Amino acid sequence: MSPRLIAVLQAVFVTFLWSTSWVLIKVGLQSDLPALTFAGVRYSLAALVLAPWVLLHPKMRASMRGLSRRTWARLAIYGLILYTLTQGALFLSLSLLPANPVSLVLNLTPVLVAGVTTALGREQPAAHQWAGVAVAAIGTGIFFLPLGAVPFSTAGLLALLFCLGANAASSLMGRAVNRQSVVPALIVTFVSMAAGSFTLLAVGLATQGAGTWTPQSWLIVAWLALVNTALTFTLWNRTLRTLTAVESSILNGLMLPQIVLLAFWFLGETLTARQVVGLLLVAAGTVAVQVQRRRSAPPEAIAFR
After folding, report:
1. pTM higher than 0.70
2. Using CA atoms, how far apart are residues 20 and 259, in angstroms rounded to an integer?
3. Which of 38, 114, 123, 154 is deepest in the core (most CB within 10 A)?
4. Cα–Cα distance for residue pair 166/81, rounded to 1 Å
């Protein structure tokens, strides 16, 4: 079996695991786990899992000692945006809304990022990327219109829109951090995750309390932290050594249809034929937006991993 085929299969496996996170999160939330505390425990545990790989590795320790105060601050702010704000809002959204509309809206993150970078004059989208924006917009309209076709709570909608904005902001900052820094990716992930997740956990405990944790709850959060975060991060970054940015973008786009199927099978969420068409158009449009003419950087991290 060729290295490229192995990388493709590993990437598909990773997207499947990331898609199952939605089902597991919804099950945990349906067990009345506090949304913010649940998210904080998940990512705090994942940061603790990554800690030995950083703190017990001589080169990693040396790299951390060499970080400037400014770099520490940038990584901490990045973690607060990516984990405290984005993940906190995501878990709140999923506690109030069905999984399918949440996944569709968050899948628009690359479109929002493209719009911001264009407005700032940093990037000039290609023709196929403009077409992708248009297709994604049409797909969103088909899914949600007419108004009232998809039931929404006001609080859930506000949390979802906040999550979309925070995810786009974390994507933009992630680009800057990784472009301007020579810090190893593992350290960037560990420091930002530790800063953001422990803050999120503190906020959750202060505002929502600890909640009641059953053996099933602990099993879910352990799986999310160990497998769907720590393991998948390692596998995904390994695939990036072989796959191009275009290939990674397309494979990452497999999450949306997988989430739809998993939500149908395990959560009982159904869609009309019109909504399925809308989802497919959004998926195609966002992949087109992410496909750059230059095969350079991999697609940004997305909140709903």
Report:
1. yes
2. 7
3. 38
4. 6
